[in-house]
Amino acid sequence: MYYINDNVKELYRIFDQNSRDGYIRMDLNENPVGLSQDFINEVLSKVTPEFVAKYPEQLEFTKKLAEFIGAEVENICLVNGSAEGIRHVIEAYSRPNGKVLSVSPSYAMYDVYCEMYGRKSVHVLYDENLEMDIDGFIDAINDDIDLVIVLNPNNPVGDVYSYDDMDRIVEACKNHECTLLIDEAYFYFYPNSFIRYALENDHVLLTRTFSKVFSLAGARLGYVVGRPESVAYVQKLCTPHNVNAFGMLFAEAIMEKEGMIDELVEKQLMGKKHLINILRQKGYTVSAQEGNFIFIKPKHLDASVIVQRMKDEKKILIKVYKDVANLGDCLRVSIGESGVMDIFIEALEEIDQ
Questions:
Q1: Does this model's pTM top 0.70?
Q2: How far is the C-alpha of 217 from the C-alpha of 83, rounded, in Å?
Q3: What pLDDT, in 10s, does the model give residues 151-160?
Q4: Cross-strand partners of 332
Q5: Which end of the chain has a smaller Cβ tally under 10 Å, C or N?
Q6: CA-CA distances (angstroms) from residue 106 to 58, 132, 162, 256?
């Protein structure tokens, strides 16, 4: 009798295969502009036939990454984007039918991976003002929870946890023997990192990606950080040669180029500030905390109509989020440099009237 895993059979997935070439991409938290062509050409000049023909080698890059983040090689597991690391942590550190705790709304793939592996997602919800009850979240950590996931800043809300909050979360996880995963996908847009918790505590892991401020979403590179014993279990789940040689080449070049990361962050945060100020001057309600994304409440048209018209008429990709607390249906916009933000503002004004 043919067998199909019921978890896979019942899993609901959406695979958007539409081309995004030629659009201004403000829908997936990428850098809409990307790295400079001069920098890309400089890095690609190092590519040889041997480089392309051989399997990617991780050790030298991992050494440089470890030095860059203040860790050891044994503290790091390279992954195919931090999403792969999150998937492996859920698989390794929660049991079949076990419970995984996170807030809602948050990164959708937490729930997808839980369904994929037959885990149960447990959510603590935001209130009508998009505020999280940290006491309620900590109270939800109990002996029935296998894994706690904290995204800081949280996507899509943008709120953050303090060091005092994290002290309490780590303590609660220890008391109830829950593994803690700290997702720092948007770390550079709010540089209060919790990496020391992963380096100093067993059963605390942290994930980061090169897709956001490093602008390498197309290269698929991320990493998991933790104590060597904790990271080793994640490493066992990785396929051989799971990360991209081009991703490592570009990431290394960005880390080594003095001031480049600071410049990338500054450009995007200045663009974010510019966008928020102009929108508010024009009477829009904006919900913006940390991270490279904001919510915008339309003034006149339905949010779904604006999203479609932006795509069809302006070649700009944004998202709609339904029932966002007391804001209702909102536009969800990834930020970028000020010039791109001006293009978006002009298009929004023309359509939302």
A1: yes
A2: 11
A3: 999 999 999 9
A4: 295, 319
A5: N
A6: 31, 12, 18, 32
Whole-number pLDDT of residue 139: 98
Q: Is the dihedral of CA 267, 290, 105, 193 positive or negative?
A: positive
* CA–CA dist 291, 284 (Å, integer): 20
- Measured CA to CA, the distance from residue 215 to residue 212 in angstroms comes to 5
pLDDT along the chain (353 residues), means of 10: 91 79 94 96 97 96 98 98 97 97 96 96 94 96 98 95 97 98 95 95 98 95 98 97 96 97 95 96 95 95 96 96 90 95 96 92
How would you list the strands of the sheet with 222-225, edge to edge?
76-79, 222-225, 204-209, 179-183, 145-151, 99-104, 120-125
d(CA 229, CA 332): 39
Give tens-digit pLDDT for 218-237. Answer: 999 999 999 999 999 999 99
Residues near 164 by beta carbon (within 8 Å), at least 6 away in sequence: none
Token readout for 41 is 């050409």
Q: Which two tokens stand for residue 320?
A: 């709609």
